[in-house]
Amino acid sequence: MKHRTFFVFYFILIAYSFAYSQSLKIPKIFSDHMVLQRDNPIKLWGWGDPGEEIQVELNGIQSTTLVPGDRKWHVFLPAMKFGGPYDLKISSGDESLKYSDVFIGDVWLASGQSNMEWQLSNVINGDKEVSSADFSMIRLFTVPKRISNQAEEDLEDGKWEVCTPETAKSFSAVAYFFGRSLHLEKNIPVGLINSSWGGTPAESWTSAEMLYSMGDFDSALNQIYADPDFSNTVTETEKINSARYEAASYSFKGIEAGVLERKYGDEDWSEIILPNDMPIYQITWFRKSFKIEKTKNDTKWILNLGRISRDPIIYLNGTEIGRTPGAKNTAINVPDKLIRKGNNTLTIRVVNSWNNEIYFMGPAEDMNLVDKVNAIRIPLDGNWKYNNQLEEIFPDKVVYYSHYPSVLFNGMINPIIPYSMKGAIWYQGESNAGRAFQYQTLFPKMIEDWRVRWKSGYFPFLFVQLANFEFGTDEPIESDWAELREAQLMTLDYPNTGMAVIIDLGEADDIHPRNKQDVGKRLYLVAKKVAYDEDLVYSGPIYKEMRISGNKIIIKFNHIGSGLTTPDDKELTGFAIAGSDKKFYWAKAEMINDEVVVYADEVDDPVAVRYGWDINPSCSLYNKEGLPASPFRTDSWRGITEK
Q: Residue 344: which domain range?
């Protein structure tokens, strides 16, 4: 009986040891073709069996450690100069791993939302840029998208790849252009880690612990961390979103129902006044009939509908005449043959698979059909018919768990900590514009969060200020995008940060400017100063101080370089001035002795100046090195996002 008890205990012990043993495992951020950070201790880590000795060898240098009780080991190799390729060997007992074609160079983490995610193939001259993206010493790593309410220890997938046209075409364009400039100028290996996700706010990239210290996100954090089935909740929601995209792209039940037919009856459709302030939900069909008294052979018809959110398909008299995806300004050349004398019908299918809200954003005077040759203008604002019941019906509220606080930090940042790197580049802010005042605290908190967790001191953190977008206004107004840019500007008060201003690179009808080349170049200019301590002009003019002289305000700037200027010596634009009543007027501005003198006839006793204070401002102030001034304000009056 004693012998049987012993053997039962022995086999239980063996089974227990087998079940809980863990062979040598290395995070997926390590792979063939990787770049390890030069001139800093190289951090390596992984998992193994407690008590096992881990041996690491790189470039003839060895280091060892023992696996602790929690099974996660760390080991450091001494700082090395750039070079390679080398083999990295990691072994434990009878197990060993070997990574080949490893370089020592500079590693940069690129993160943010869609403008950082934007692929190289989609930029200006994308085909040419892709075909020339052949650099054996630039290495690319794309972090797979992952939402998690747990701080994940490893990525689900991913590997380092040599930069070739094939691997670069879908990589982050901003990161690529930044890395290319760095490699070509310094002739060193460059590793680029792209961890980005379109449409996401900064809180998604910040740890729960740091967000709890703010108190602004407690409710959402408590919700996701209290959900024991969070991963399945996310999966089911993503299925709904995928079905929405599928329906948006391939389901045209309205056409099957005959909405394009001339005699289609829309009497039971609902009515709406366009442009509209309140959204319509679901995939929606719109119809409007109008008359043309006469037509001529010599005509040039243009259909203008303003901006429609988000992906309209426009039909005239049953024939498709255009698509304007992404809420661009809708202006379409209409073939003469489609215009009928008498009754004509516009039919529009609109879907917003992004947030399910449909707007005709106008303005009303821009909704028309115009014959420019014969000066005929047919207004199209006002009464329309609509039906949002013909296609698939989804919940009105679109849920994106990628927008929830901490979930992308957990799934896409934490698994690569503490991979040694030179610094980070960041392009994000559009999704936080409505909470710009909060961003003044949130953004520095995120930077601090990453720095504390990497334990690499104040590593360089460089970011892109929001570009100009949409359309400027006739009169000075309050602007959440301007307030977000201000929050980014304020972040320069924190050590080892730098900002690339791109207020001149945006596109009015596209939130994704195609000129990513200059974005990458300007980020690299900032890096040369902040990360590489070079003496150069790396920034456009930044507001320093003001003084009042009679009915004028005189503005002084930092970073004037060789002096202030405007492109092609044009007049200064973008300035507004106000008195104590806080009412701003467009101002006249003059450059005198590298200062800007601002005044307006309407303001006798000025107290404040704003520059570039709009979503798409008219800005013309540069330094002679060709770098634009950052938008700014001299007042501290309560903004529209200060809630």
A: 253-387
